[in-house]
UniProtKB/TrEMBL annotation:
Record carries keyword Transferase: no
Protein origin, superkingdom: Bacteria
Protein name: AAA+ ATPase domain-containing protein
MF-aspect GO terms: ATP binding; ATP hydrolysis activity
Family membership noted in the UniProt record: Belongs to the AAA ATPase family.
Disordered: annotated segments: 335-390
AAA+ ATPase domain mapped to chain residues: 139-269
InterPro entries cross-referenced by the UniProt entry: 26S_Proteasome_ATPase (IPR050221), AAA+_ATPase (IPR003593), ATPase_AAA_core (IPR003959), P-loop_NTPase (IPR027417)
Chain intervals with Acidic residues compositional bias: 381-390
Keywords: ATP-binding, Nucleotide-binding
Amino acid sequence: MSTHERGRTEHGADGDTWSAPHLFLSGFPTELPDRELVKFRVRLFAMLGDVISRYRPGPFVLSAGYGVPPEPLTPPSPSPRDTAAPETPAFSTVEPLYTFDQLVLPEETVGRLLDCVSLVEVAPLVFDTWNLRSIEPHPSTAVNFRGPPGTGKSMAAHALAHRLGRRILSCRLSDLESKYHGDGPKNLAALFAAAAEQHAVLFVDEAESLLSRRFAQPQQAAESAINSMRTELLMALDTFRGLVIFASNLPHSYDAAVESRLLHVDFALPDRAARRRIWQTHLPAELPVHDDVSLDELADVAEVSGRDIKTAVILAAVGTARRRRTAVTRDSLLTALEEQRTPPPAPPEDGIASPLSPEDQESVAARLRRRLADAHTGPGADEEDTRPHA
C-alpha cells in the first residue's frame, strides 16, 4: 500500500481553509518499474486531491484494476435472530396467595417478620416527618429468608405482601440471566424498576448465587457476568424504595457489601407443636379421613417440613381416590410422608451394592406384599372397605 499526505492546511476553490484528508492507494502489481509507479501515484494523488479540494465529498473508496472487474462482495443479510436486540423480560405482579394468619412458624420468626413489616409501615414517619431522609435519601428494606427447602419462605413473602396491602413480583435468578453478555445487569435493573413502578414487594427466590461473594479475579465470561449482576444489585438496593425479599436454601458466604444491606430471617424445620398445626391445616373438613388418623401420631414424625406434609396429604388423597376407597387412612398418610422425606440411597463408592440386612429384607418384603394387595384392589372391590391400607 502506498500513501501520500497532502499539506495539513489546504485552500479550497472558495478561498477558505480546511484540513485535507489522508489519501491512500494500494494494489499495484509488484513487477512494474518503481519509477513508473511513483509517477502514476503523484499524478493520481494530485488529480484526486484537486477533486476533493474543489467538491469536498464525503469519505469514499475508489477502486481501479485490469481485466474483468470482480463482482462486489455483499455480506449475507443477517437473520432477524442475529439483528434483533435481546428483549428485556417482562415482569408482572400478582396478588399475594397467602395471608399472615396462614403462617405456622415459631414465635421468634413471626416476630422478625413483623419487624420487617413495621420497617415499611413506619418509613413515612421516620424518614419524612423525623427527617432521617437527610442521612438516608433512599431507604430500602432488604430481607434475606434463609433456611431449608419447604420451610415457608415463599409463603412468608406472599404473607408480608398481603399484610402491607401490596402486590408481589416474584422471580428467580434464571429469569435474569441471558446468553447476551451484559444483559443480566440490565434485566436486574429492569426488575427493580418494574417493582418500583407497580409499588410491589419484590421477591427473588433461589438467590444464593446472586448474594454470594464476588469473584476477585474472574477467569470466565460467566464469572464476569455474575460480578456485574452483583454490582448492579448493590446500586439497585441503594436506590430502591420498598421491600425486597431474597430467599436462599443453602448457607453461603455472602458478599460483605450485600450482607451489610440485608436483614436476615432464619427459617427452620417445624417443631412438634408446629407440625401438629400444619397437619391440622392441611386436612380440610371436606377430606374424608379415617377414624384411625391421629394428629398427635402424625406430629410425632420429626425432621419433616411443611412442604413434606402438604405433599404427603396430596399423595395419600390421590391414592385413595385412585383405588376407589372411601377415606384417607393413617397408613396411607404415614407411608406417603416416609417416602417423601426419605432421601435416595447414595451409590456405593466401589460400584457394588452391599447386601440388605435381614431387617431391610423383611421391610422390602412387607412393602411388596402391600403393593400386590393394592394391585388386586380394582373397581369391583367393596367401596365401603375402610380397612387401613398403605
